[in-house]
C-alpha cells in the first residue's frame, strides 16, 4: 500500500507542472470571465458557442470539456450536472480584471520568459555566496526588471501582475495596519511600481502626500495619474527621495542581503531622526510545511530570498534602524508590516 501511495505521489509530482498551464489555457480562452457573467452554470457546448460568437472561431467542445474537467478534479470550478460548468470559491480567483484576481500571476509565471528561468535553477548552486544573480538573469542575460523594460509583451504581464496582486496586498495592509495616521506628511513608496499602493494609502489618509519612486521605465510606462501622488524616477541603489516616512512593499525580498542593506542605507539617509520605515514583506519560517513554496520563487525570478523575523531584525539593525515591530496581516497569509525607526 505504502509503495503504491509513493508511486502515485511521484507520478503526480512529475506532472504537477501541468495545472498552471491548464489554468493558463482556460484564462486565455476567457472562460472564467464568461462563467462570471452568467447567473447559472453553463453547458460546455454553450460555452463554445459564446466563444465562437466572441472570436469568430469554432472551439472544440470536447477539448474544452477535458480542460475544465481536469481543473474540476483539482476542485477548481464545479461540474454539475455532467458537462455543465460553474464557478466555485477557488475558480473565482481566475476571473481576469477584478481587484482580487490571480489570472495575471498565472500568465506571468507560465510565460515563456518566466518558464525559461526555471531551467537554470541548478546553475545558482554553482555561484559564490555573494552572488545576487537569479535563474531569470541566467536565462535572459538581464534581471526581470530590465527584461520588463525592454519587452512590451512581458511588461504588460508584469504590470498586470503588479496591479492585481498589489490590490490584494494593499487591501490587506489597510485592513490590518493602523500606523499611517502618524505619518507627518510625505510618504515615499520605494519600488512602488504602478503607484497603486501609495495611491490607496493617500485615499485612506488624505493628509499624506504620496511619492511613488521606481525605475525610469516603470514610471514612464507602468503608472497612471493618481490624485495626491507624485511619481519620481530613479535608482534606489543610488539614493531615494526624502520623506517623513518610507513605505516599501514586496521589494526587499527581491534582493540578497548585500543589496537589501544598500537600499536600507539609502532609506535611512532619506528619513528625519525618528522617521519610520514601513516594510510590507514575507515573514519566513523555513520549518513550517505549507502548500506554497515561499522562498524559491525569489531565487528564480529576482535572486532574492524570504527572511525570518530574526533575519529582518538583523538586516534593519545593520543599517541603524531600531524599535522593530512586526504586525502580521491576517488577510494576506505570511505577510506582515515590519515597522522600524531611525
Ligand atoms: C515586486 S515589485 C513591487 C512593486 C510594488 N511595491 C508592489 O508591491 O506592487 C518590485 C519593484 O521594485 C522596482 N525596482 C527594482 N529595482 C529598482 C531600483 N534600482 N530602483 C527603484 N525601484 C526598483 C521594480 O521596478 C518594481 O516595481
Automatic annotation (TrEMBL):
Tell me which domain of life the UniProt entry assigns to the organism this sequence originates from.
Eukaryota
Could you state one GO biological process linked to this protein?
methylation
Q: State the signal peptide span.
A: none
Q: Fetch the PROSITE patterns from UniProt.
A: SAM_OMT_II (PS51683)
Q: Where is the O-methyltransferase C-terminal domain?
A: 118-322
**The keyword Cell membrane is annotated on this UniProt entry:** no
Q: Where is the O-methyltransferase dimerisation domain?
A: 12-95
The terms under GO molecular function for this entry are: O-methyltransferase activity; protein dimerization activity; S-adenosylmethionine-dependent methyltransferase activity
Its keywords, alphabetically, are: Methyltransferase, S-adenosyl-L-methionine, Transferase
Catalytic residues at 253
PANTHER family linked to this entry: O-METHYLTRANSFERASE
| The protein, known as | O-methyltransferase domain-containing protein
Q: Which organism is it from?
A: Selaginella moellendorffii (Spikemoss)
Amino acid at each position: 500500500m505504502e509503495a503504491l501511495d509513493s508511486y502515485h505521489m511521484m507520478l503526480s509530482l512529475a506532472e504537477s507542472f501541468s495545472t498552471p498551464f491548464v489554468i493558463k489555457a482556460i484564462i486565455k480562452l476567457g472562460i472564467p470571465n464568461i462563467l462570471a457573467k452568467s447567473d447559472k452554470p453553463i453547458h460546455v457546448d454553450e460555452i463554445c458557442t459564446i466563444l465562437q460568437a466572441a472570436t469568430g472561431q469554432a472551439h472544440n467542445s470536447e477539448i474544452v470539456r477535458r480542460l475544465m474537467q481536469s481543473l474540476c478534479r483539482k476542485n477548481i470550478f464545479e461540474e454539475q450536472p455532467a458537462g455543465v460548468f460553474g464557478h466555485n470559491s477557488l475558480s473565482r480567483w481566475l476571473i481576469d480584471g477584478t481587484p482580487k484576481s490571480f489570472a495575471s500571476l498565472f500568465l506571468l509565471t507560465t510565460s515563456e520568459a518566466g518558464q525559461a528561468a526555471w531551467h537554470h535553477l541548478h546553475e545558482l548552486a554553482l555561484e559564490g555566496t555573494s552572488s545576487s544573480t537569479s535563474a531569470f538573469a541566467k536565462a535572459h542575460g538581464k534581471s526581470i526588471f530590465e527584461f520588463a523594460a525592454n519587452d512590451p509583451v512581458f511588461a504588460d504581464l508584469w504590470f498586470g501582475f503588479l496591479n492585481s496582486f498589489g490590490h490584494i496586498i494593499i487591501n490587506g495592509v489597510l485592513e490590518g495596519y493602523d500606523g499611517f495616521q502618524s505619518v507627518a506628511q510625505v510618504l515615499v513608496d520605494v519600488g512602488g511600481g504602478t503607484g497603486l499602493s501609495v495611491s490607496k494609502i493617500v485615499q485612506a489618509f488624505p493628509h499624506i502626500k504620496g511619492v511613488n519612486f521606481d525605475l525610469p521605465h516603470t514610471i514612464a510606462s507602468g503608472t497612471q495619474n493618481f490624485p495626491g501622488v507624485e511619481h519620481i524616477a530613479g535608482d534606489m541603489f543610488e539614493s531615494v527621495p526624502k520623506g517623513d516616512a518610507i513605505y516599501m512593499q514586496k521589494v526587499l525580498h527581491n534582493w540578497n542581503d548585500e543589496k537589501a542593506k544598500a537600499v536600507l542605507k539609502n532609506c535611512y539617509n532619506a528619513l528625519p531622526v525618528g522617521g519610520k520605515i514601513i516594510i510590507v514583506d514575507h515573514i519566513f519560517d523555513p520549518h513550517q510545511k505549507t502548500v506554497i513554496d515561499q522562498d524559491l520563487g525569489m531565487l528564480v525570478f529576482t535572486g532574492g530570498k524570504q527572511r525570518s523575523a530574526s533575519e529582518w531584525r538583523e538586516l534593519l539593525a545593520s543599517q541603524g534602524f531600531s524599535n522593530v515591530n512586526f504586525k502580521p496581516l491576517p488577510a494576506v497569509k505570511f505577510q506582515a508590516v515590519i515597522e522600524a525607526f531611525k
